[in-house]
Write a structure and sequence with these properties.
Blueprint lengths: L1 H6 L4 H5 L4 E7 L3 H7 L8 E3 L1 H9 L17 H9 L9 E8 L2 E6 L9 H4 L4 E7 L5 E7 L2 E7 L2 E7 L2 H4 L10 H13 L5 H5 L2 E6 L1
Antiparallel strand pairs: 1-4, 1-5, 2-9, 3-4, 3-9, 5-6, 6-7, 7-8
Length: 211
């Protein structure tokens, strides 16, 4: 099953993050540069797996940290790193985890879209994309180039476009045969040649908490 997800490049994200997700791609940045660009302090960045980030997001502040499966709660240094980084004691609003692939930095968020606010800054060295699907199933794509926003649209809904049409700005035309966000992820696979391993995104990646 994991192999099929990996071979589909980016499209697997739409299934693996079936409630809500944000995928951000920034050309020419490292993961740490991406996180700093969206407001993280490097000393507060902590490596986290996806499952650890999920646990932190869904916990109640009143829960004892011993309930966290990934954490040895008696490891004072580990608890201090998470506390200083804003992951504990209250759950953060969102956690952004970042990695790199083929000359791009990528970021994944489980529910929110913190990175979308910073897309112009994330495009200083080239192109930047942000795709967000909310819990109601609506998707939005934003694209910026060299520090300037170019287009914002909902795949398959051309009347919900700001700035340049997607077909003009990117050459993307939704045929209607696939769900909009899946169609756009397939488009990015072909245009950018990005194949993001599912296994890598599940493992530890540099992560920042935002409230």
């Amino acid at each position: 099953m994991n192999r099929r997800r990996t071979e589909s490049g980016l499209r697997w994200i739409a299934n693996a993050y079936n409630i809500s997700f944000t995928l951000t791609l920034s050309e020419g940045l490292s993961p740490y540069e991406l996180l700093r660009s969206v407001g993280a302090e490097e000393r507060h960045i902590v490596p986290l797996t996806r499952s650890a980030a999920y646990e932190l997001l869904l916990r109640d502040e009143e829960d004892h940290i011993s309930d966290l499966d990934f954490l040895d709660w008696e490891d004072e240094a580990a608890v201090a790193r998470l506390t200083n980084g804003g992951f504990l004691p209250a759950p953060p609003d969102t956690i952004v985890r970042a990695g790199s692939v083929a000359g791009w930095a990528y970021a994944l968020e489980e529910f929110h879209c913190h990175t979308g606010t910073y897309l112009a800054a994330l495009s200083q060295r080239g192109r930047a994309f942000c795709m967000h699907r909310n819990a109601k199933g609506f998707s939005r794509v934003d694209y910026a180039l060299h520090g300037e926003p170019v287009t914002s649209f909902e795949p398959g809904q051309p009347h919900l476009t700001n700035d340049a049409p997607a077909e003009v700005a990117l050459g993307f035309v939704h045929s209607g045969n696939e769900v909009g966000d899946v169609a756009f992820l397939r488009f990015l696979e072909g245009e950018l040649g990005i194949y993001l391993p599912w296994e890598e995104t599940e493992a530890e990646l540099p992560a920042a908490a935002f409230t």
